[in-house]
Design brief:
mainly alpha, 8 helices, elongated
Length: 167
């Protein structure tokens, strides 16, 4: 199945396959945004519950820099590139690519705090790990790194924008 997805992605130019992976990684956020918007239009209770969410510091430049630049780069290097590269060096894991992807995904999820954040990170991490694996087995370190960083950046930007919208 993993090879079939890889063959499908290989049919597209690099930028289109990266955009497709970014959309897949963030589809749940798009659906959640629509559902929350509808709930806010329909119900006063939903508006009251959303108003109770912790306040977000919209103009906190350090937070934005960390979430949009530092985190995507460091987490990509540790949770995706290093783990998947090491996994590909071990013969047992090379036979079972899904296992490498799951180990990377679980590590990525545990790098985040809170259950809902970890659940989101698991889903996004699955796409990030697959993207990294897809390009590493082809020997393309540059695309493996930058595709993952871009998708992670886009995911964090979308999550931050979502929080600002509902705050």
């Amino acid at each position: 199945m993993i090879q079939r997805i890889g063959r499908y992605l290989d049919r597209f130019p690099y930028w289109q396959s990266t955009l497709l992976l970014a959309i897949i990684a963030n589809a749940h956020k798009i659906i959640a945004l629509v559902l929350v918007s509808v709930a806010m239009l329909i119900s006063q209770d939903a508006r009251d519950e959303i108003a109770k969410l912790p306040e977000i510091y919209v103009w906190d430049g350090l937070f934005l820099f960390t979430a949009l630049v530092t985190a995507p780069i460091t987490e990509t290097l540790v949770a995706q590139l290093l783990i998947i590269w090491l996994g590909l060096k071990v013969g047992y894991f090379r036979k079972y690519p899904l296992l490498i992807i799951l180990v990377s995904t679980i590590l990525f999820a545990f790098m985040h705090s809170g259950f809902s954040t970890m659940a989101n990170a698991f889903y996004v991490g699955l796409v990030l790990a697959y993207a990294t694996y897809h390009y590493l087995i082809r020997g393309d370190w540059v695309r493996a790194c930058w595709t993952t960083v871009f998708i992670h950046f886009f995911s964090n930007l979308f999550a931050y924008g979502f929080r600002v919208l509902i705050a």
